[in-house]
Structure formats: C-alpha cells, structure tokens
Amino acid sequence: MMDQGEGIKEMNEKLLQFAQQTRQLLSTKPGVEARQDVAALLSQLLHDKAFVSDIFAQPMPDRHILYEDEELHFCILAHQYEGARTSPPHDHAHCWAIYGQVEGETHMRDYKVLSAPNEDQPGIVQLTKSYHLAPGDVHVYEPGDVHSPERHASTKLIRIEEQNMEKVQRFPFIEDAH
After folding, report:
1. What are 31-72's pLDDT values in tens digits?
2. Alpha-carbon dihedral of residues 6, 65, 84, 94, nearest 10 degrees?
3. CA–CA separation, 142 vs 137, rounded Å?
4. Which residues, at least 6 apart from 10, have a Cβ–Cβ distance to it below 8 Å?
5. Low-confidence ranges of the chain (pLDDT < 50)
6. Where does residue 43 rank: exposed (0-12), middle (13-18), buried (19+ CB within 10 A)?
7. What is the reported pLDDT for 178?
8. Per-residue pLDDT, 11
9. What pLDDT does residue 3 have?
10. Fewest 10 Å CB contacts: which of 17, 50, 57, 113?
C-alpha cells in the first residue's frame, strides 16, 4: 500500500480506514454496486469536520494523491481549486470516478456522446443534464460518462479514481454546436 499523504498527520487514520473499506467493497461486490457503496461511505466521511479539516490543513496543489492502492490501483485524491475554473467535457476513459464535494459548489453538466473521439479528432457531445454539487454531495461517474465541471469560486473536493488518471490516455470532446 502506497500513501502519498504523509504530510497529513502520518496518514489520517480515518483516511486509511476509508481506503481499507473501499478496497474491501471493490474486491467483493459487483462493479456498480461497489461504487455506489463507496460513494455512500464517502458521503458520510464528508460530514466529518475533523477529517476534512485534517485533509485540507496544509496547502496543496490542485490535484493531490492522498492514497494509491498497490493491489487494486484506485486512488483517493484531494482537490483544492483556487478561484473560478471550468473544465471542458471529458470522461475518464475506461475508468470510473467518484466526486465528493467538500467546500464550495460545482456546477456539473453531463453529455451524450454523438461521435467517439480518437487520436485524430475530438469526440462530439450533446448536453443532456445540468446540476450542482454542494458540500456533502457525492456523484459516481461510470466509465465513459462524459461530464464537465464549472466552479465560480474556490472549491475543495475528494475524488476517488479507479486508477491514477495521470497514467490513462484520454481523448478530448467538444460540444455539438447545434
């Protein structure tokens, strides 16, 4: 087990417990069911003020890996975004991701894929749904779910990725102009 959160009070005990519970769920339950259960655990954890303040006690980059599982390869990350920011439509390729809003609000948009991306051209997507993630909200994005977050002010979130997305090739998407 590799943890990269040593700056967080010797690997926060609650974080380690959450990582162990996540590993157990992902190892023993079917995919979607396991991810929904992990999301429910994350939702409970987001309401623990001591846990949240411990995780975000130190300044950190936008993307900070708190824990990366050597066996299953899932990652638990803390994100601390300063100021407004919008990300273009994207998916997590063949991987899932679970977003847990800690502080601030994220306006999310979901899309339907009209044409898949490839190495030569971006995929084309059409907006299907728009919603907000407020503190305590958790949302599961299944493999291939295209979404786009927009933040109007600083935000914090905890995200779980099926594997470290820095190691996964992804292709861009653009919104259909019609």
Report:
1. 999 999 999 999 999 999 999 999 999 889 999 999 999 999
2. -170
3. 17
4. none
5. 1-9
6. middle
7. 74
8. 57
9. 43
10. 50
Contacts of 20 (CB under 8 A, 6+ apart): none
Q: How far is CA 4 from CA 10, 11, 40, 115, in A?
A: 10, 8, 24, 38
Give residue 1's pLDDT. Answer: 42
Would you report the helix, strand and coil content of the chain in percent, each value rounded to 5? 25, 35, 40
DSSP string, 53-106: HHHTSS---SEEEEEE-TTT--EEEEEEE-S-EE--SB--TT--EEEEEEES-E
Give the DSSP H/E element, type plus range, for residue 114: strand 106-115
- Record the tokens describing residue 46, joined without a space: 């987001």
pLDDT value of position 9: 45
Give the Cα separation of 56 and 168 in Å (integer). Answer: 26
Q: In what helix (H) or strand (E) does residue 35 lie, and over which residues does it extend? A: helix 31-46
The amino acid at 81: Y
Q: What token pair was written down for 15?
A: 């974080």
